[in-house]
Amino acid sequence: MSTAMFFSLLLNIGLLVLIATLLTKIPIVRSMLLYDQHSAGCGVMLAVIFGSISIISTYTGVRAQGAIVNTRVIGVLAAGLLGGPFVGMGAAVIGALHRYLFDIGGFTAVACAISTLVEGLAGSLFSRRFKAGKMDSSGVFFLTFFVELLQMVIILLVSRPFTAAVQLIKLISLPMMTMNALGMLIFLGTFNMVFIEEDSQFAERMRLALGIVEQSLPHLRKGLHSPPDMQAAAEIIFQSTSCSGILITDIRKILGIKINSELSDMEDDTVLPPILASTHDRKPTVFHYAGKGDPLYSILKNHMIVAAPIIEMNQITGSLTMIFKKHWQQSQSDLNFASELARLFSTQFELSELEYQKKLRHKAEFQALQSQVNPHFLYNSLNTISYVCRENPDRARELLLTLSSYYRQTLENNSYMHTLKTELHHVTSYLELEKARFEEKLHTEIKNDLQISCFLPAFILQPLVENAVRYGFDKSGNRNVSIYARMENHLIKISVSDNGPGIPESIIHQLYNGEHYGGFGLENVHKRLKSIYGQEHGLKIQSTDSGCELYFTIPANPDPRYEEEYGAARERELTIDNGGINYENRSY
């Protein structure tokens, strides 16, 4: 009988281990067990779960001399240790009531019900110590052994006739105390092992992802602007993982690709639309199957595709796509890994974009200042003023003050954002000096519809106006430069137009494709606008043989990223207002 009893308890313990493994797969149970803080509803759920485990242990027990040899103590005691007093006592009440009702009037019904409550109380009392890591495996073993010993004592005290209770204790005490103590270690160890295994897998994946990012860092610093660097990053990922292929894209084209020979179809641009479309919801997408005629059909026959979006400044700027060989059991970790790697790439791209934007800002301002403060411009201005001195000293004095104001604005202002009024003030100072130089050959007009007030990057207009003055003249040498600000479809459109021969198509093509064409002014304006407002807000050019219009659109609402800059920009606008000059609508 003793051997059969040991075997029955062993089977019960195996069942409990299976139940524990299944419980660790339920997200809400995992969350409640891993994190001590949970709502009353979650506590009730845990109590019911562990109470149910004790009920199952009762049903699967083996009868012996009017008693039931079982592993009920494991569910109740574990409830207290893992879930705390509320869960432990809740599970104990459920298990005790069921044990009493299961065998009403039975020889040990009352004694076993009482001992179940004691077991729940013991687990609750030791819960804090267990969760704090102050109770090791030996502590759990001896606690279980002790509460089982208490059960034997309670049976002797409560069950009658006493002689029958003594005979029962002789039969069941050793198997139940030793096997349940060992079973408790195995049951808790199952929870711990699954959590440790998952933590280990997650840590390994994160270590791998961080290692890839670290190796790719020199390439990621250049952002998505450099296809050669994205190609190098794709090769690093491919060499570091077991995937069959890697694609790094922007929102239009493949920037980097590394694939096995069997995935040559991935090089076809037709695979991009479904992949890029899947990133619109900002979540990673898994492609398992595709019908005939689908561009992904040949790939998905033997592989699965995981596409994760790359997000910078809350905008989707590209995707990281990984291709894995199909197996009978596809791991969720592949999806998680691709998602985490894309998130790390996004963070690095965002940081690199901020750094790139900062450098671009400094470079743009430097180039703007360089073109404005260059000796040639200064020489022309002073030379013009010297001639005016002979004919109109008052006008010469005005020009000297304008020149002084112009250089003060240029050299002293290091802010990133201006109001439109401040920007027009600066441009007007520049045009007034050029007007003195070209006289009747230069005609300018500044028009601000509805007195629009907005913020825009500092010195963003200066390169456009300078380009119009320098190159926008007709065959007679006349220069007609117009600056307009107006509302269009809830956006503010700001344009600079001239009557010159236009900009060569080759330069426009190079500008739009990110290629350096030899100049800096328009290129810097184009990149600054895109980096601040997004890809669709770059510089637009409409050029003909009889004139050229350079324009851009910006959102009417201020960008919260530059809130601090706006305060300083408003103060500068007040300074201009106090000067009593209206630069919003002016022709001369």
UniProtKB/TrEMBL annotation:
Give the UniProt keywords, A-Z. ATP-binding, Cell membrane, Kinase, Membrane, Nucleotide-binding, Receptor, Transferase, Transmembrane, Transmembrane helix, Two-component regulatory system
Membrane topology type, per the record? Multi-pass membrane protein
- Span of domain Histidine kinase: 460-558
| Keyword Cell division found | no
Annotated InterPro entries: Bact_2-comp_sensor_kinase, HATPase_C_sf, HATPase_dom, His_kinase_dom, Sig_transdc_His_kin_internal, Sig_transdc_His_kinase_LytS_TM
| Any Pfam family hit | HATPase_c
- Protein's cellular compartments: Cell membrane
Record-linked PANTHER family:
SENSOR HISTIDINE KINASE YPDA
Q: What is this protein called?
A: LytS/YhcK type 5TM receptor domain-containing protein
What organism does this protein naturally occur in? Answer: Clostridium boliviensis
The residue ranges crossing the membrane are 6-28, 40-62, 74-97, 104-126, 138-159, 171-196
